[in-house]
Amino acid sequence: MKQLFILIFALFLTEICLAQTNAATPPEVKVETMTSNPQKRKASIVKDDLTPQGTRYIWGESRLSFVGINLKRNHLLVSLMAKSDNVENKFYIVLTAVKNDTPYTGDKGSIVLLKYKDGTIYETTNCYDSVTRVTSLEGFGGNYNRYDISFIAPMDEEAIQKLSNGLSKIRVRLNSTNYDVELSKDNISTFLLEEYALIKERLTTKFDIKNDF
What is the pTM of this model? Predict the structure, then answer.
């Protein structure tokens, strides 16, 4: 009986490790340098991998939704992801909240809202049960922790194409409260459309372990 318990516990730990490191996990948030600018990142693919079950995940680069230097305004890192099971391709918008020294929490199943510049609203739902990731960093004022969580919400291709109209606002639920990102200058719609085109092109090719090596 004791051996059975140990075996079950070991399998449980294995499942946790797989859940934290498999293809379905969002890429880690980059540590910025003095010369990097997350507001001007180019569209690219940063991760292309298969789960043990053969489901393919293709993750795009993330860009900061804010333009300027006053990061006290609400902001998110925004990107696209595609999931392919050889039957259909599904697209998702990935929204990552980052904060120094204060952890965020988010809820799977919470509503995600995107408002286009023409006033129409696209409603979708966070389908990702994100852990709060912690990164220890060193700055001019000493060491500090950076916390981030990700929202991953389905986005149909019609809604993605409509990004050509531009976005004006994003809403997610952070710490059980509405977190509104006002896009005074939309620097992400064209970026997401470019990323969509790159991911669509990658989906036409077979998975290659050397991708992004």
Answer: 0.84
Q: How far is CA 180 from the centre of its chain?
A: 17
Half-sphere exposure (CA, 13 Å, Cβ side) for 66? 15
Residue type, 185: K
CA distances, 157 to each of 23, 94, 144 (Å): 22, 15, 40
Q: Are 30 and 79 in contact (CB under 8 A)?
A: no
Q: How far apart are CA 93 and CA 180, in angstroms?
A: 16
Q: Are 100 and 79 in contact (CB under 8 A)?
A: no
Q: Write the DSSP assignment of 147-185 as a string of letters.
A: EEEEEEEE--HHHHHGGGG-EEEEEEEETTEEEEEE-SS
- Residue numbers of the chain with a pLDDT score lower than 70: 1-21, 32-35, 70-71, 139-141, 212-213
Q: How far is CA 11 from CA 5, 24, 77, 169, in A?
A: 10, 19, 34, 43
Q: Give the pLDDT of residue 137.
A: 74
Q: How many residues does the chain have?
A: 213
